[in-house]
Amino acid sequence: MASRLAVLLPACAAFVVRAAVAASIEAQVQDAAGKPVADAVVYATPASGPQEARTAKAVDVAQADREFVPYVSVIQTGTSVAFPNRDPMQHHVYSFSPAKSFEIKLYTGRSPGEVRFDKPGVVTLGCNIHDWMIAYILVVSTPYFARTDEQGRAQLRDLPAGAYELRAWHPGQRKAAAPSAVVLEAQAHQPAAYVIDVAPRKPRYKPPLDRLKY
Ligand SMILES: [Cu+2]
């Protein structure tokens, strides 16, 4: 027991020290009219270089009520995604995006497999059966990211002190926002404000269930 404690204690101490010095970024994203932008991604890439995910933890992008949930996901390069279908009808999930092209043919229930996203970039998801279904996965080579809520706020937590390149992204952006360089002091709560030129989300016709064959 004593020897096991001796092994555990230094690890715990290292964790406590890291948590105490970690910094955060409090981001606010607005459109040109000053309205908060939801479903934007804010991410900070360490100046030391890109970082791939080391754990095999999978993320879900589900299908429910004939929509993808969530509409926008952000994951670290190297992360696997499962696509559970919670609807009673079949879906057929695909992507033609250069960052990851794949398809999972007609299925219901559990995801027939997981897809590993090994390149950074934007992945647009569609369903072969239901034309209106669309969703996005932004793959970033950093563990430090967050998606904005309805108030346009995103909080990036537990960043080690140091230099970062900070970016914001939205699937409807007309132009990519310029990245900014930040240097985070230990324990800093760094504010970051973004204005993104976002096109309004196009309404897509979703037929009522009783008109559907599938
Ligand atoms: Cu579908």
Structure description:
The chain has 214 residues and is mostly beta strands. It folds into two domains: 24-50 and 144-200, Immunoglobulin-like (Sandwich); 52-141, Immunoglobulin-like (Sandwich). It is built from one helix and 17 strands. A five-stranded mixed sheet has the order 6-12-11-8-9, with no helix packed on it. β8 and β9 (100-107) form a beta hairpin. The termini are far apart. Mean pLDDT is 90; it is low at 5-9 and 11-17. The structure holds copper (II) ion (CU). The site of copper (II) ion (CU) has 5 residues, from loops. Residues 91, 127, 129-130, 133 line the site of copper (II) ion (CU).
Summary tags:
214 residues, mainly beta, Immunoglobulin-like, four-stranded antiparallel beta sheet
Quick description:
The protein has 214 residues and is mainly β. It has one helix and 17 strands.
CATH topology of the largest domain: Immunoglobulin-like
Spatial order of the strands forming the largest sheet = 6-12-11-8-9
How would you name the CATH homologous superfamily of the largest domain?
Cupredoxins -  blue copper proteins
Distance between the termini: 60 Å
Structural class label: mainly beta
Radius of gyration: 20 Å
What is the number of E strands? Answer: 17
Q: What is the helix tally?
A: 1
What are the segments in which pLDDT stays under 50 over at least 5 consecutive residues?
A: 5-9, 11-17
